[in-house]
Amino acid sequence: MELSFILNELGEDRENYFNAVSPPIVQSSNFAFKTVADLKQAMADEFDACLYSRGQNPTLDILRKKLAALDGAEDALVFSSGIAAISVPLLSLLKTGDHIIAVENPYSWTQKLFKSFLPKFGISTTFIDGTDFSNFENAVVPETRLIFLESPNTFSYELQDIKKVASFAKSRGIITIIDNSYCSPIYQQPYMLGIDLVAQSATKYIGGHSDIVAGVLTGSKELIRKIFDHEFMNIGPAVSPHSAWLLLRGLRTLPLRIQRSFESTKIITEWLSDHEAIQHVIWPFLTDFKQAQLVQEQMQGCGGLFSFTLKNSSLKKIETFCNNLQHILLAVSWGGHESLVVPSVASLTEDQYETTNERHQLIRMYVGLEEPQYLINDLRQALEKI
Ligand SMILES: *Cc1c(COP(=O)(O)O)cnc(C)c1O
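Above are the sequence and the pyridoxal-5'-phosphate SMILES. Below is the predicted complex in structure-token form.
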């Protein structure tokens, strides 16, 4: 399906709402029926009917169709956060005694899910370095039920060979799920590479304006329906019709925004790489990136998230640099209109910081929609202060 058709037409039935170009926000918790028979039918199958907005809603329905098509998947669920789009399917697919193989250092709350939350239900996780495929084969035990990927990682950008892991998992009857927030469906479609479930934080590129928290999960109709019928309806992580509408609006400009970020990041990472105060810049589309070959094989591009380290880095230097930025904001998250930095040390105590550990020295930057030169000027003056 063509991208322009998905973003501008798919799922939209304008004749049903006064030929309005922008779909209405159907701000209603429930829906009425003419006959008991109609009501009965909707109650028997909430997945395919608008009965009550914890399940389906007409504004949400348009969004679901577009999101599924963007991933090349059969269906989609929308959640009130990205982390719900990860935790709810896991709660649905796993039971006591099951084992997960996960890439090491995933998104912080995904890590807490594996390390603190799932063990309460007797579900264990082995973390592996996913850059080496043999680590997946070696970590499998008879209880392994699920493999969790995040490619690339959103702080240090390690990739996994998605196609290879997906086909290995299929041959063993293991379900695969990937966090695809970094690339968005514009630049990577893991479902098309054989992954069963694709999760992403829609708070990032899909929302795109730093004004909404939401998540997306796509997959086969069968798996999505299974998750909807039980855990989705029981846990209750649905988005409001207004949030669904904001996400629809975000989708209209998604390709433009992410492409702008991608192009500005090329300029900024090259400028930083040449700067005398910079030690190392990590971004999948730099020529010296460790897994450059795999990037070419499975990513069509990427957005504006990268990391770098300072020469002769120290806690003090990192803090001085960050505190002196005038326009680039010091904040978590990414994917909006505004550029941001967050240093790794923000999540470390002073005695946890190891001077020789590159991970601890990383400063992550997200390049928003500003003029690249405006951002370079800000980086330059802050680097001069150290
Ligand atoms: C932000 C983020 C999440 C969580 O999404 P929320 O919408 O904040 O719940 C998950 N994975 C990655 C990679 C993220 O950056």
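The chain has a mean pLDDT of 97.
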